[in-house]
Please model this.
Amino acid sequence: MIKAIRGTRDILPPSSAVWNMVEARAREVFHSFNCHEIRTPIFESTELFARGVGEETDIVSKEMYTWDDRDGSSITLRPENTASVIRAYIEHRLDQIPGLKKLYYIGPMFRRERPQKGRYRQFAQIGAEFIGSDSPVIDAEVIEMVLEVLTRCGVESPHLIINSVGCKDCRPAFVQALKDRLQDVKAGMCADCQRRADSNALRVLDCKVPEDQNVVDSLPSILDHLCQPCAAHFETVKSLLEARGIDYELRSRLVRGLDYYTRTTFEVTHGALGAQNSILGGGRYDGLAESLGSRVPTPGIGFSIGEDRLVMAIEEHVDPASLARLDVFLVPMGDAALRHAALIARDLRRGGFTVELSADHKVKRAMEAASKARARFALILGDNELTAGVYALKDMATGEQRSLTREQLAPALK
RNA sequence: GCGCGUGUAGCUCAGUCGGUAGUAGCGCCAGAUUGUGGUUCUGGAUGUCGUGGGUUCAAAUCCCACCACGCGCCCCA
Model:
């Protein structure tokens, strides 16, 4: 048997209804913020991600699907979408259009990681980028927008975590201070931390080994090393969130894996998702456009929701089958009734109802099918009904049945 | 990439000490019922025991490798 390749999967009904619901709600929220869709290619020049995401990140160094095209150029399936959006922004000179550019996207991304629950090699992200302003007001707007998506999708108790990782002026000094301190204390830490102390010092802050927590707590905090503009920016972001009544956890140890983040970073976690409890991540990336060739300063901030994980969280408490509604199942008896039923079906479908037409002339079979399909009503068309000009509408939940004329049908189905 | 675990019917699973694969539950099909589903009763179908190799008179069972999935690590959405 040919099977879907490792790390990929089919989204089947009824689960696909949850995906459609999530995407529909997200689009509603985005449009209400005057944020509009951008669709970029799912493969790009490898160089775009190498420069945008960062050569030293795990994503670029070992998790990309990359191959040489026939002309020798290196192509990569996108592992994330922010770099592509910024590339499109620069390529199409969107900086020449007045105002803040607010763009959202929904689509598949690809990373060659070990598959696990909530982690696939093809996964979907719903994200947005607000480009062209470094105002902290925008940070608060973006955070509010993404939380609104979660709320509108019915996600219970999302947990917002925020931090500031500084900028190119103040972060290097902090990293150096952190490394210096780690040289003194790393001997007492776990093996992973000893390795990270040299390779990726910021990651030590993320260590989850219980025995290391005392040491981790004693390490310097990025928040004490922010330059004055970064500190002021972060203070404003926090106060704007508070003014909006948005609860957050300040976690100075929240560091993100992508090189381009500056200043505000954030994450939302949700219980019951296993090790992959992060449902979305985002942050500001004020230097990214310049590193991709923009000649004008182009600050931006964005986020990306892991759609697979969001769907998983929703399915914890929503039965996917409940999202699909079948209003009426037509049960014609005989050829004449079948031909007539097709016209009734057309009427009702045009009226906005979901209608199923039985292909089986045996009433018992058709009624069984209606029941298994979880139809709200069955509409029986037989000789008696056709000659009298009425139809027998049966409520499948109560078993109650009554005779209705064609005009009375649609109102009865409401 | 690393560690641990799991893999038997469409699904959930049982399978003793290695001795012909289960009256198992749910689901599916048919009938009881020629114009009425759900409940009930009766009957029926469905297996490369994940794949390949090894040990053995004999392997779902023991051993090895591989594959897939799960949990965790790394990292991340």
The mean pLDDT of chain A is 89. Residues 231 and 325 of chain A are 52 Å apart (CA to CA).
